Amino acid sequence: MHETSTTLSQLKCRVVQREPAPPELIVVLCHGFGAPGDDLVPLAAEILERKESLGAHVRFVFPEAPLSLSHLGMGPGRAWWMIDMARMMSMQMGTHGPEAITEMLRKEAPEELATSRKRLLGLVSELSTTSKLPLSRIVLGGFSQGAMLATDVTLRLEEAPAALCVLSGALINEADWQKRAPLRRGLRVLQAHGHQDPILPFQTGEALHGLLDKAGLKVDFHPFNGGHTITLDTLERVGALLEGLLPPR
């Protein structure tokens, strides 16, 4: 496995490919809140080992979020935007229930989202230019907060990407996403969410699925019995999606 580091649009990135070669498909995966920048990097090898047919044709790019959480005692943890953890924990442990958390997140439009959005948009543009691939050959995705950012950027790109992978994501910024989502009608979306997710309740994923489905995106929604995680079955499905996006041989 060939792994390198680079900086794209002011974001430190890990780049993984089976072997150095011009890619036919690029996959950008964004990590979640509190994770170090290299948190998702092992997923590239997992997917490539499961799907031999992907060969050296797929390049994985893992950007590191711009905000450090070391001042909060979270070591190498990073964030795309800050979260009021005390408020979230209070709601999760109190009597509010998942419906209240879902409604709270729907209205969220964090201040730092604009900065992270700009940097990820710039990263995608740089990847397209340097690889000479159109946006239609770039897959966006992520886990948790990273999935929310990937969704936000997908809805704002000038052209549709190849696909969107939402792993344990949630609906935020609803008013804006609701207006933009119909412009991505027909886009392939792989979404997975755990029924027992204690961080982002299953209802938050259902709300996002409902918005995207109603707007005409082709959402392949996979609930699973589990918590805030990425299952082996989900990785298998991501690999199958990438296989389907490569040109016939």
Describe the structure.
With 249 residues, the chain is an alpha/beta fold. The chain has one domain (2-245): Alpha/Beta hydrolase fold, catalytic domain (Rossmann fold, 3-Layer(aba) Sandwich). It is built from eight helices and ten strands. The strands form two sheets. An eight-stranded mixed sheet has the order 1-2-4-3-7-8-9-10, with helices on both faces. It has a two-stranded antiparallel ribbon with strand order 5-6. β1 and β2 form a beta hairpin. α1 packs across α8 and α3 packs across α7 (202-214). The radius of gyration is 17 Å and the shape is globular. The model has no long low-confidence stretch (mean pLDDT 93).
Characteristics:
eight-stranded mixed beta sheet; two-stranded antiparallel ribbon; alpha/beta; Rossmann fold
Summarize the structure.
This protein has 249 residues and is α/β, with parallel strands linked by helices. The protein has helices spanning 42-50, 85-93, 97-106, 113-131, 145-154, 174-180, 202-214, 232-245, and strands spanning 2-8, 11-17, 25-30, 58-63, 67-68, 78-79, 138-143, 163-167, 188-194, 218-224.
